[in-house]
Amino acid sequence: MSSNLEKQYLVHLDSIIRMYDDALKEGVNSWMPERDAYGIIARAEGAIEKISGRHSPYARQMASILGDDSHPSYKAEIITGIVAALKGDIQDGYLASLTELVRGEVFKDFLQMSEYLLSEGFKDAAAVIAGSTLEAHLRQLCPKYGIDLEQTVKDGKKRPKKAETLNQDLAKVAYSLFEQKQVTAWLDLRNSAAHGKYVDYSREQVEQFVEWLRYFIEKHPA
């Protein structure tokens, strides 16, 4: 990939991340206006497919998020994390080799995708995908235990609960306090990956995250 094209891609991805940060400032309780969320999603969708291809891990994860019934603000948050991971991989010079590695590959699930990316050295993309998988599993567990996925905020509107709030609710009925603390720690790692703080965690920690997550999902099926 040419240097000039890389710079163009980085500028475009960075503008999406800034757009997300600016939108959060206008929101309430970390939930942005829906018009901003949809704008971010549209720009990110176009950028991810153009830069990484429709069959890349970034595009696959984005398609999964777009296909669920989550609040637009939640979708914008997760997809911006995918954008940040893509930006980091371009900066590290990984994108050209990554698109070759994943072309034609079929992943049975997102954890398998994370493990594959780790084996090829892409810890940041693996962390984003594993973190999204953890949050999705928490949301799937809640109906099983009668836990509401939404809460009323100051403006009187219903908003989806944050992942850590769901974790706190689930710890009362589904799993132990020790597991709650583990979930909190891994959600923190996910947040670092989603916001481009790649030096806050190591490849080994992402490996431990993926291994723990597979065990956690098997132990607490939704």
How big is the Rg?
17 Å
Mean pLDDT: 85
Shape: globular
For the record, give the distance between the C-alpha atoms at the N and C termini, rounded to a whole number. Answer: 43 Å
Alpha-beta classification: mainly alpha
Helix content: over 70%
Major sheet strand order: 1-2
Task: Report on this structure.
- The structure is a single chain.
- A hairpin with a 5-residue loop joins strand 1 and strand 2 (158-160).
- The protein has one domain (3-219).
- It has helices spanning 3-26, 34-52, 57-67, 72-91, 95-102, 110-119, 123-144, 163-171, 177-194, 203-219, and strands spanning 150-152, 158-160.
- With 222 residues, the chain is mainly alpha-helical.
- The longest helix is centred in the N-terminal third of the chain and has 24 residues, at 3-26.
- Helix 1 packs antiparallel against helix 2.
- Residues 99-108 have low confidence and may be disordered.
- It has a two-stranded antiparallel sheet with strand order 1-2.
- The relative contact order is 0.12.
- The protein has 10 helices and 2 strands, in the order H-H-H-H-H-H-H-E-E-H-H-H.
Summarize the structure.
With 222 residues, the chain is mainly α.
Give a topology summary.
Blueprint: H1 3-26, H2 34-52, H3 57-67, H4 72-91, H5 95-102, H6 110-119, H7 123-144, E1 150-152, E2 158-160, H8 163-171, H9 177-194, H10 203-219
Antiparallel strand pairs: 1-2
Helix pairs in contact: 1-2, 1-4, 2-3, 2-4, 3-4, 4-7, 6-7, 6-10, 7-8, 7-9, 7-10, 8-9
